[in-house]
Amino acid sequence: MEAFRERIAGPLWQGGGPFIVWALHFFGLYVLVAAGCTSGWAEVPLLGTSLLRVLLIAASVLAMAWITWLLLRSDGVRQPQGSRGLLAVAASGSAWLALVGVVWATAPALMLPMCSLK
Hints:
two-stranded antiparallel ribbon
């Protein structure tokens, strides 16, 4: 079992983990908007905006922190002067792409009015 974790599961998580976090974030935003709009969270004031918007921002910050942690754990960031293998490049690249994806998915939630599109 340990060999499976070291040779297969670990490298898969390093290279694909950031995309899994991005996908969970993307799905979570849609769930929050659906639940928030039907429950009236967009009209509940909190911190100068609505409860729904605060929850969306919190989910996005959490996803970005998780992806940044994965980026910092990749060998490409911790050892920039040494030789980099394909896995280190893939882990760094996927983390950067996932960060851009989280920001891209969060932007409409920050710019558009909540629950008013019909």
